[in-house]
Write a structure and sequence with these properties.
Elements (H helix, E strand, L loop, with lengths): L14 E2 L5 H10 L4 E6 L2 E7 H4 L18 E3 L12 E4 L5 E5 L1 H31 L3 E6 L4 E4 L1 H7 L3 H4 L4 H4 L5 H7 L3 E8 L2 E12 L2 E12 H19 L24 H14 L5 E4 L6 H10 L8 E5 L5 H9 E2 L12 E2 L1 H4 L4 E5 L6 H13 L1 E3 L6 E3 L3 E6 L3 H7 L4 H7 L2 E4 L10 H16 L4 E2 L1 H8 L6 H15 L4 E2 L10 H12 L9 H14 L4 H8 L3 H10 L4
Parallel strand pairs: 1-2, 4-5, 12-19, 12-20, 13-16, 16-19, 21-22
Antiparallel strand pairs: 2-3, 5-6, 7-8, 7-11, 9-10, 10-11, 14-15, 17-18
Helix pairs in contact: 9-10, 16-18, 20-21, 21-22
Length: about 575
């Protein structure tokens, strides 16, 4: 439960209609021991009527003659701790009465909050104990680089007492620290080699984002020296050997196979996707991967294959949209000698045959012609394949993974995709969320890509936090593929070692560039602007987010309720 009024209010308040007689109003007030009651007409809030106004009045009078205005009216999105008086009447965006906060609800809220505060104090004490007793050195700095948390393990490494370290600039306490760099860039640096007090360590440096801004950074000392790393590697190999004892990996294969740990992102929606994919990898059931173009459907397919019991088999990928319809059949099924003019002597195996004992990945399955869909369905059902121009059936055994950026269910409804094939493919569905749905993963992706580019070009470029913030505001219709391509272009074209908003490519729309910069770089509270500036800022922000008031309020740094009030004041609705 949140602290919003809507979660605490009484949803069925008593009310009167303006045309009701005072006699009824008096009866309801006395019967319910009330000093006032709401007046509503056509579900719209009108005001209140007080007991003192109706006592000893002419019973023939109507409620409408005694309606008072009332400033104890609040939006459902308002936080309950902002209330000044009770009762407070709650109205929605259309001005309809939807609830009220009386003394009973107010008491319930405070009782609950007191209980939660006690639980939080106990949990905070537990966190402090864990933080202080952790074997790994842990420190947290604020956005100015000042140490706010510093545990005993870190204190032992740097030989500075915890009480002396807290409140000091991290650069003065931690030798060669790069936490100020992480604060500036907003990009995590994980599993990095670091030398501290003559000791070789592996460290994590993690930026802490809040409201699209880096507010702190955490430093974690993970491994001490290389011997501990080697021990962990040996243990991991033993675990891997046990896990895959039935299907030992081919020693001739490259070590750069795509694994689930290579799928970058820790957001809840993407973590759920990876969890389903991991489970799917341990079966041979068909998998249907869906998601927008550029989300990495092929990478997920490779990870499923490489973590599966058939990882020693081939991973054969076919892009159904890239091969002309006339050639698709021979590409998939192969052909026999003399099947057509120009056919290779001895024939040629198709992709399906090559996937025997391995995985066949049919990308963009939604673009496969109906005639070919029927043939693929037969292969799945009969587990055999016949080359073009041949009468010989070859038995096959492969794991089928398909992917599409189209709505297959809708295609089935429209008759452009076979229903029977759809249900053959739709055994384990895996949906990959768009980058817009998991924007919190952007820093991790940026960190990984810049590290790759630095390694490739032999450089040490960094990226400014404002650029990462700007990335949060972009639609990324091409998803991760678009983001990675953009990063490489920014990296190559940037003449400075630190990439800033000034280095954005020229083809970035000027209005988009400037408006995004204003939203994030000029992080002023809207209330500090003049009314004209405030109105323009709100209007520009709403246009930027296409009318989404929740996003607009977040970018403006105000609550949604405050935004509605300002929209009403400036007649921007």
């Amino acid at each position: 439960m949140t602290d919003k009024i809507i979660d605490w209010m009484y949803p069925n308040p008593l009310y009167l209609h303006p045309e009701e007689p005072l006699k009824r109003a008096l009866h309801i007030l006395l019967e319910n021991n009330l000093t006032e009651i709401a007046v509503v007409e056509n579900q719209k809030w009108k005001g209140i009527i007080k007991l003192q106004d109706v006592i000893q009045k002419d019973n023939d009078d109507k409620v409408s003659s005694f309606i008072r205005s009332c400033d104890r009216v609040a939006s459902a999105d308002l936080l309950i701790d902002k209330l000044q008086d009770i009762p407070t009447y709650i109205v929605n965006d259309e001005g309809e009465l939807i609830g009220e906060i009386t003394g009973k609800e107010w008491l319930h809220y405070h009782t609950t909050i007191t209980k939660e505060l006690k639980q939080k104090e106990e949990m905070l004490h537990l966190y402090e104990m864990v933080f202080d007793t952790a074997y790994e050195g842990l420190t947290v700095v604020d956005d100015k680089g000042i140490i706010r948390l510093f545990n005993e393990a870190y204190s032992r490494y740097v030989k500075v007492p915890t009480e002396e370290a807290i409140g000091k600039d991290a650069a003065l306490i931690i030798e060669n620290t790069r936490l100020p760099v992480v604060l500036k860039t907003g990009v995590p640096e994980r599993s990095q080699a670091h030398r501290l007090q003559g000791q070789n360590l592996v460290v994590h440096r993690i930026p802490i984002w809040k409201d699209n801004k880096v507010v702190a950074a955490a430093g974690i000392l993970v491994y001490e020296g290389v011997s501990e790393i080697y021990q962990v590697i040996d243990q991991m190999e033993e675990l891997d050997k046990t896990k895959h004892s039935k299907f030992t990996k081919d020693p001739n294969k490259k070590n750069s196979l795509t694994r689930f740990e290579d799928l970058l992102g820790d957001s809840p929606c993407f973590t759920k996707t990876k969890k389903i994919a991991r489970k799917a990898s341990q079966s041979k059931a068909p998998v249907l991967i869906t998601g927008e173009s550029g989300v990495g459907k092929d990478i997920v397919a490779q990870a499923i294959h490489n973590e599966s019991p058939i990882t020693r088999g081939r991973f054969i990928s076919v892009n159904c949209a890239a091969i002309p319809e006339a050639l698709l059949e021979s590409e998939l099924f192969g052909y026999s000698s003399g099947a057509f003019t120009g056919a290779e002597k001895g024939g040629k195996p198709g992709k399906i045959e090559l996937a025997h004992k391995g995985t066949l990945f049919l990308d963009e399955i939604g673009d496969m012609p109906l005639t070919m869909q029927a043939k693929i369905l037969r292969v799945i059902q009969e587990k055999s394949v016949e080359r073009v121009g041949s009468n010989h059936q070859s038995n096959i055994d492969f794991r089928l993974i398909t992917a599409t950026n189209k709505d297959i269910k809708q295609m089935v409804h429209e008759g452009t995709f076979r229903e029977d094939l759809y249900y053959r493919l739709y055994v384990i569905p895996i949906h990959i969320p768009s980058l817009r749905e998991r924007a919190e993963d952007i820093p991790i992706i940026v960190s990984h890509k810049i590290a790759e580019l630095n390694n490739e070009y032999g450089d040490r470029k960094t990226i400014d936090q404002l650029v990462v913030q700007w990335m949060y505001t972009q639609p990324w219709k091409g998803n991760i593929r678009e983001l990675i391509n953009f990063l490489e272009r920014l990296y190559v074209l940037s003449e400075s070692q630190h990439m800033t908003l000034d280095n954005l490519p020229d083809d970035i729309d000027d209005k988009q560039r400037l408006s995004s910069y204003n939203f994030l770089a000029n992080k002023k509270v809207v209330e500090s602007l003049s009314e004209e500036e405030e109105r323009d800022r709100i209007k520009e922000t709403l246009e930027h987010v296409k009318g989404n008031k929740t996003k607009a309020a977040k970018l403006l740094g105000i609550s949604r309720a405050t935004l509605y009030n300002k929209l009403s004041r400036y007649t921007l609705e």
